[in-house]
Amino acid sequence: MIRPAALLVSTLLAACAPAPETTRAVPMHLALPAMQTFGPSAPGPLRRSNATIARDFLDLHFALESGRTLPRLTRFEGPVTLRLVGAPPHLAGEADLLTRRLRDEADVDIRLDTAGDRTITVQILPGHVVRRIVPTAACFVAPRASSWAEYEAGRRAGTTDWAALAERRHVVVFIPSDLPPQEQRDCLHEEVAQALGPLNDLWHLADSVFNDDNFHAVLTSFDMLVLRMTYAPELRSGMSREVAAAALPRILARLNPRGGSVDLTNPATDTRWSALMAAALGPGQARVRRERAVRAAEEARRFPDTRRAFALYVYGRLSLSVDGSAALAAFLQAGEIYARADLPVQSAHVAVQMAAFALSAGRPRTAIAIARQHRPAADAAQNASVLASLGLIEAEALKLLGRTAEAEALRVDSLGWARYGFGSGTALAARVAEIRGLAPR
Questions:
Q1: InterPro entries under this entry (predicted)?
Q2: In angstroms, what CA-CA distances link 6 with 2, 76, 203?
Q3: DSSP code of residue 69
Q4: Taking the CA atoms of the chain, what radius of gyration do you get in angstroms?
Q5: Phi, psi at 278, each rounded to 5°
Q6: Domains of the chain, with CATH numbers?
Q7: Rounded Cα–Cα distance for residues 73 and 50 (Å)
Q8: Which of 427 and 63 is assigned the larger pLDDT?
Q9: CB-CB contact of 347 with 338 (8 Å)
Q10: Is 167:72 a contact under the CB 8 Å cutoff?
């Protein structure tokens, strides 16, 4: 289940820009370039010990995001077909790329099918319909259904309980039609992956879409390995956690021979910390959400990984409009943690904030340097919203330096990515206006 992007994507530093500029809208008659799209992805190397991978595999498969435990492993026991219902053209292309990756990287026997029986159905519905059932999620997946009508009937009858499954036969994914193209693609990746395998999210997974931080947009090397393990011949539906655990060392020795055997170092996330982060990311008073993020950052000091960095990042976003100095300090700390951990995707998200601070402070050269350093990571991660934001900030900085031809070329290119990341309506107009308003006039 993916959270709405409004809660998680980088919010720019509009609060520090001159007021008349931040309220300026982009003319809706502005001629936009063609929407940019990504091709096949090239996931980076896997940097994990097999012992850690095995633990995470079990935690992902034998619990739901709510914390409820699952008694058995379930998967599809045969070829999988994926069918799109009501999908826009761009999503059909994304589905083709995804199924190719699943076959090549995860060894899942899956294909697109426009007719006939289907095991996974992806249905595009009006946003208000989806949010009526799950208001805190951008999209979600459910078992024992192949349509919205079947899902609603099953929900009333109590047959859509993952814990009651013995084997997966029919699963449906619901994606709102009013999401930007990138968010629809992100939903496709994570929800189809959950339809095939893991149903849980883990906060400490810095290299996975199975993490509520939503930093990764498309399935990673780790995610593909988890799915490859899920469909290994040594496993089958109905296995208990203990039986599955006994099979994992042999599976990983074959699939990830460089993983070796390393002691586990990252403790699991307790329910208290998860609740603090859920409150910080959820609806409610901004003051209360900031307090929860601060508490989560303090409590995360006991974790030897990047959970503290994410709490600081969330606190920084929530503080932008009320305390710019506190927000900047939080982003600096988060950026340092992510840099030490060599996490370029997370660093690119923080870089949007840092470049925005530099631009609003009248330091265009610093803004350009930050944007240029981190745009390649956003491109490699196929995150158009971050890529476009960094490009538009750099374009404004170039304009301040009088390099208007460079600025215009980069602005046009970035608008193409912005159409993919934010859509072509008011969200895009608001983002462009927000970034224009950062530059001193």
A1: DUF2927 (IPR021323)
A2: 11, 33, 19
A3: B
A4: 22
A5: -60, -40
A6: 5-36+268-436 (1.25.40.10), 50-259 (3.40.390.10)
A7: 20
A8: 63
A9: yes
A10: no
Please name the residue that has the structure tokens 């006991």: 302
Question: What does the alpha-carbon distance between residue 314 and residue 2 come to, in Å, rounded to a whole number?
Answer: 17
To the nearest 10 degrees (0 to 180), the angle between helices 221-230 and 241-255 is 120
Phi-psi sector, 437: left (phi>0), alpha (psi -120 to 50), beta:
alpha
Extract the tokens encoding 259.
Answer: 């993983």
| pTM of the predicted protein model | 0.92
Is residue 327 within a helix (H) or strand (E), and if so which, with residue range? helix 324-340
Cα separation, 293 vs 318, whole angstroms: 9
CA 290-296-301 angle, to 5 degrees, is 135
Query: In angstroms, rounded to a whole number, what is the distance separating the alpha carbons of residues 246 and 238?
Result: 14
CA distances to 3, 41, 124, 212 from 127, in Å: 13, 28, 9, 20
Other Cβ atoms within 10 Å of 153 Cβ, number:
13
**Closest-CA residue to 183 (of 127, 265, 111, 143):** 127
- Whether 14 shows a pLDDT value over 80: the answer reads no
- CA quadruple 183, 210, 239, 151: dihedral positive or negative? negative
- C-alpha 364/C-alpha 351 separation (Å) is 14
Residue 262: its pLDDT value, please? Answer: 59
105's tokens = 């990287």
Assess contact for 31 and 38: CB atoms under 8 A.
no
Q: Nearest 10 degrees: CA dihedral of 414, 419, 423, 428?
A: 40
Which of 5-19, 109-123, 183-197, 397-411 has the least mean pLDDT?
Answer: 5-19
With the CA atoms of 199, 201, 207 and 212 taken in that order, what torsion angle do they form, in degrees rounded to the nearest 10?
A: 130
What gap in Å lies between CA 431 and CA 411, rounded to an integer? Answer: 13
Q: Using the predicted structure, report yes or no on whether residue 309 has a pLDDT greater than 60.
A: yes
**Bigger pLDDT: 305 vs 140:** 140
What span, in angstroms and rounded, lies between the C-alpha atoms of 139 and 12?
24
Residues 6+ apart with CB under 8 A from 132: none
3-class secondary structure, 196: helix
Q: For 65-87, what is each residue's pLDDT tens digit?
A: 988 999 999 999 999 999 999 99
Cα gap 189→139, rounded to integer Å: 11
Q: Strand, coil or helix: what is 141?
A: strand
Please give the DSSP secondary-structure letter assigned to residue 147: S
The type of residue at 130 is: V
